[in-house]
Amino acid sequence: MHEIVIVGSLNMDLVVQVNDMPLPGETIPGGDLQTICGGKGANQAVAAGRIAGKAAMVGRVGNDAFGTRLLESLNHAHVDTAYVSRDTAATGTAVILVDSRGENSIVISPGANGQVTEIDLDAADGVLKNARFVLTQFELPMPVIQALIKRMHSFEGKLILNPAPYRPIAPEFLAMVDFFVPNETEAEKFSGVHVADMDSAQQACRVLLDMGIQNVIVTLGAKGALLANPHGIQHIPGVKVNPVDTTAAGDTFIGAFAAAMVRKFSLEDAVCYANCAGAIAVTRFGAQTSIPAAEEVDALYARQ
Fold first, then answer.
1. Which residues contact 41 (CB under 8 A, 6 or more apart)?
2. What distances in angstroms separate CA 23 from CA 5, 26, 94, 104, one per listed residue?
3. Exposed / middle / buried, residue 211 (Cβ in 10 Å: 0-12, 13-18, 19+)
4. Is the CB of residue 80 less than 8 Å from the CB of residue 96?
5. What is the pLDDT of residues 196-230, one digit of tens each?
6. Residues taking part in catalysis
7. C-alpha to C-alpha distance for 274 and 52, rounded to whole angstroms
8. Full set of structural domains in the chain with CATH
9. Over the stretch 5-64, which tens digit does the pLDDT of each residue have?
10. 158 has which bridge partners?
């Protein structure tokens, strides 16, 4: 059985590099169009598979060339795709602009991701029940996410929820989450606390813990991450690098965090390790093309 299972989206990223983001109504020149395997769920699966050596993916792709490429990318990263169905809908896509500072702007077309139902969870029930960590995000239909949260609450494994992109969800579901991993913007929207600095980020963590979440990890980009639980709030510093493209940095962090926990790291060390993985990812272009192997992350972690 698989210790790490990812329930989530699989997208083909259609990427164009630009000097600056276009203004409304503006037409600008860009680089050549690139097609790169992505999707928050698949990215996290690739990160977990490359670093832990084994993972499983639950989701849907279209019965098209993009779907085939996504499955091949997952298999190459040691991810079991037996629980990924082929759908009559087109494979999900993401249209991404990346500017000269490495920042991105993304539009998602869900495609087959929007066709995932509880039937997919039922088909993967055995692997979900025996997993140590199950990862999910908000790029699937919300009824599926809610059903997964309820299901995992009755299983022994831990659920890691990455609430991206932001969508509202009832507080009772958040109270069932073992690890809640938002970025600063998502932490602000869920907590109602304007996150402008480290103090306000910590206040947002306190509000989220009061909702009943066991562990909150707020990713802070280059500043690292905050780890919060009933024992306190700790800032885990980031690793200084020259960013090229921030696409999939958060996904890399989450997949690496799960892999580190499977490898028996402490919570603090797992967040530090995940920071290292995310730092490597931002120095490379693309989503799954930027995700490092375990040996690379191990080497950077050893130097911290």
1. 6, 7, 8, 9, 10, 57, 59, 135, 136, 137, 139, 140
2. 40, 5, 20, 14
3. middle
4. no
5. 999 999 999 999 999 999 999 999 999 999 999 99
6. 251
7. 12
8. 40-86+114-303 (3.40.1190.20)
9. 999 999 999 999 999 999 999 999 999 999 999 999 999 999 999 999 999 999 999 999
10. 133
Q: Hey, what amino acid is at 144?
A: V
pLDDT exceeds cutoff 90 at 102: no
Reported as a single tens digit per residue, the pLDDT across 140-187 is 999 999 999 999 999 999 999 999 999 999 999 999 999 999 999 999
SS3 of 231, please?
A: coil
Q: In sequence order, which residues have a C-beta less than 8 Å from that of residue 251 and are 6 or more positions away?
A: 40, 43, 44, 47, 162, 287, 291
Report the Cα 188 to chain-centroid distance in Å.
18
Give the span between the Cα atoms of 32 and 44, in whole angstroms. Answer: 26
Q: At what angle do helices 267-281 and 294-303 cross, to 10 degrees?
A: 110
User: Which pair of tokens denotes residue 56?
Assistant: 């499983």
- Put simply, whether the predicted model's pTM sits higher than 0.85 gets the answer yes
* Sign (positive or negative) of CA dihedral 46, 48, 53, 58: negative
Tokens representing 278 are 């995310």
Distance (Å, whole) CA 287 – CA 266: 27
